[in-house]
Amino acid sequence: MMHMTFYWSRNVTLLFSSWQTDSWISYALTLLACFIFSIFYQYMEDRRLRFKLLSTSAASTTTNGTAVDATPLLNKKIIAGSSRWSVGRVAGAVLFGINSAIGYFLMLAVMSFNGGVFVAIVVGLAVGYLLFRSGDDEQVVVVDNPCACA
């Protein structure tokens, strides 16, 4: 039976029918996995945002009056004549897809309605944000993220 309200129990089925906990050890390991996965989500989001800043920043800098490409691999075009298919944009799209998948898995885990899973994910997201995204060098970037996480 699927719960439709929050419950506090060590018996939980998470994401897959084979991922069931029936002891305190398996429940603790499940909560630890949720916590680490949440931190990893924030790490990947930080990497994706930094990569986006790097790939969209000014591609050339001037050195002694000549233009030098600062990020040569990110600005190469996959299809000649098309600025929509640069390596940087494709890599950014792949990172966005991976991060969206992680975010949706976290959302589905929360939808198990287990209180411990919810707390582990929320605390993991907060710790991950503290570790990777709350630095003094943070730049404001508006990002369209369809995931409810972060």
UniProtKB/TrEMBL annotation:
The chain crosses the membrane at residues 24-44, 86-107, 113-132. Keywords: Copper, Copper transport, Ion transport, Membrane, Transmembrane, Transmembrane helix, Transport. The keyword Cytoplasm does not apply. Pfam families: Ctr. It is a multi-pass membrane protein. InterPro entries: Cop_transporter. It is found in: Membrane. One of its GO terms (cellular component) is plasma membrane. One of its GO terms (molecular function) is copper ion transmembrane transporter activity. Belongs to the copper transporter (Ctr) (TC 1.A.56) family. SLC31A subfamily. This is Copper transport protein. It comes from Helianthus annuus. The gene is COP51.
